User: Fold this.
Amino acid sequence: MRLTGAQILIRTLIEQGVDTVFGYPGGTVINIFDALGESEIKLIMPSHEQGGAHAADGYARVSGKPGVVIATSGPGATNLVTGIANAYMDSVPLVAITGNVVRRLMGRDSFQEVDICGVTMPVTKHNFLVQNISELAATVKEAFTIAVSGRPGPVLVDIPKDITAELFDYVPAGRYKVRETPMSAQSKLYLAADMISKSKRPLIYGGGGIVSGNACEQLTAFAERGNIPVAASLMGLTALPSAHPLMLGMIGMHGTPVSNFAGKNCDLLISVAARFSDRVAGDRKRFAPNARLIHIDIDPAEFDKNVVCDLHIRGGASEALDELTKLIPENKDTGWINEIELFRRENPMPEAVGGEKVNPRELLRLLRALTDDDAILVTDVGQHQMWAAQYFPFTQPRTFITSGGLGAMGFGMGAAIGAKAANPDKQVILLTGDGSFHMNLTELATSVTSNLPITVIILNNGVLGMVRQWQHLFFGSRYVSTTTGRKTDFVKLAEAFGAAGFAANTAQEAAEALKIALSSNRTSVIDCSADPDEMVFPMIPSGKSGDDIIYGAEVD
Amino acid sequence: MTNWLMSLIVNNHFGVLTRVTGLFSRRGYNIASLSVGETNLSGMSRVTIETQAGGAEIHQIIKQLEKLEDVKSVALLPRTETIARELLIIKLIVTAARRDALTDALSVYDVKIPYEEEGRLILEFTGNPAECEALLKLMDGYTVLELCRTGITAMSAVNLK
Ligand SMILES: Cc1ncc(C[n+]2csc(CCOP(=O)(O)OP(=O)(O)O)c2C)c(N)n1
Ligand SMILES: [Mg+2]
Assistant:
């Protein structure tokens, strides 16, 4: 069958199991959109390509399937870059498809020509410039294979416009298959099991790979059998329900006191699908200083990259944990757990203390009470994000969507839309900050127009709170550029976009608005007025260790 | 810091060298020398890289390289039993008075002189890295106008056995 390159592309996407794409049109992808228009694929158009990339990312995180975003050449392609980098840092399977100028104009600085393969080389697992239509279908399939295999990540396929118009014999490429990662030798698992059974104070440090690798059940079984507490990275927070007795919460810079206590005092740390980032192991030399370390990861390049470990096991989290659970004895010793419990009781997280306005800690508890168990909480970046990580009781995997590695303000709107597209029946709540929301609030239009209703809660402290907190603590309270003084009326703004707007000055008002918003099935924005002086604690300053925790500070 | 020689088999695509060198600069690894050429394997090139790195870092470099889709294999070459060669081409000024002394000094090396005219000549030499360094040292006493080095290319002899 003779088809155009654009038609071959769309057929190949469908063969890969794609039913939804986020795409923004333009000159070099006009053929692709023409073919999309006549296909069964659901096309969601963002306001800005960055929003589209974040949406594809959010879609992938929630569904576990690769997200797809399409953009035109030049500015369309460069607008994707933050979204691609974000997916790269958080190991999210994403396929970005860009148009480029026709081949005979390439390399001549033609209109809207950008070497997007060159630009995205450092932030993709791989990228392709399709040079011949005969390679198109196989290249697209290979892009999916790479995106999902091993440690997932983004792949970009750049297609010159003339290839999308050219006719070629269509031969189905078939569905991608995940390339399996071989596991380390069984002897390593025996060694690990031996270390675990001899340990008196073991700790699991769980990362995002447990969630993305669908290994949460395996983690639960392993932790329960070995009676091993779990401290999670930001990305790993939904690996075990917050209420599980063995769950200690987040570890690292803004981690819970008990997680960092356990990190400091464990005699064996088992890292599962985590990468010892500087936000976890601020001082690489003093992380888990009293412990032997086991590192389980699907990506061997993570071994000894940041923290040197005693034993490395290469493999997917679910297989590795399954095997280990079989090998370790059931542990009835409660000494370590009791010690941890005692510490936890004596060193709780800071409590919500009233104030005139909407208290962030109280807001997060309210949010849990008012939302379904399987509601998806998306955040932006800043203090509000850390409070969500610290205070929102997570119940299910893949229900906390946040920009971890890149820390990209503006991620939230797109990601929430993507999450809703993946799961139209679940409640999707975006907790954002006034600063972050300003970055990509134009995606409100997408949410409204594409009928993907989300509830946006702005924790509006009127400041770039997280940076301001650093200025307060480390720069003599010189608040340069963080007191924004913006006059944006978020209620009117919401209404202007066709969404519902609410203003809340107290937690009670926020709760009332939330109830209406959640039951309305409309895109809603709740502007919660918050105290600019509130800070995120505990805090281990950058580069420091668990010995240097700050539990609080006075505001002058 | 140790000197390492590694040999990569990569897809012979456009952009592959950028991926390899980009990885080195991005992660702060150092490239002391690099050479690329086709191989007997169709569609494959060999990249030989000399790098200075600590023992832990060299493992990081190898694992990061192995993650590149276009890199098919990465091998650290053994210190002995490796045939490592570099080609030097040197253009220098030699006055008539010193011409004989130069010939004497070069006699221990298998140096060719493919081009010579009044007071100027071009030397061509292929040798292992140590010989190349020694020859370059010798050049200190002369006015070198231009110098080219290909970078090391190398092959392990271990799998001959
Ligand atoms: C794109 C981007 N630019 C800058 C930063 C640096 N930064 C980190 S947190 C933050 C403040 C965020 O402000 P807001 O969204 O209001 O959240 P808050 O901390 O006040 O809760 C800034 C500027 C960033 N993370 N991302
Ligand atoms: Mg703010």
Notes: The interface with chain A takes residues 15, 18-19, 22, 26, 56, 59-60, 63-64, 66-70 of chain B (CB under 8 Å). The first strand of chain B starts at residue 2 and ends at 11.
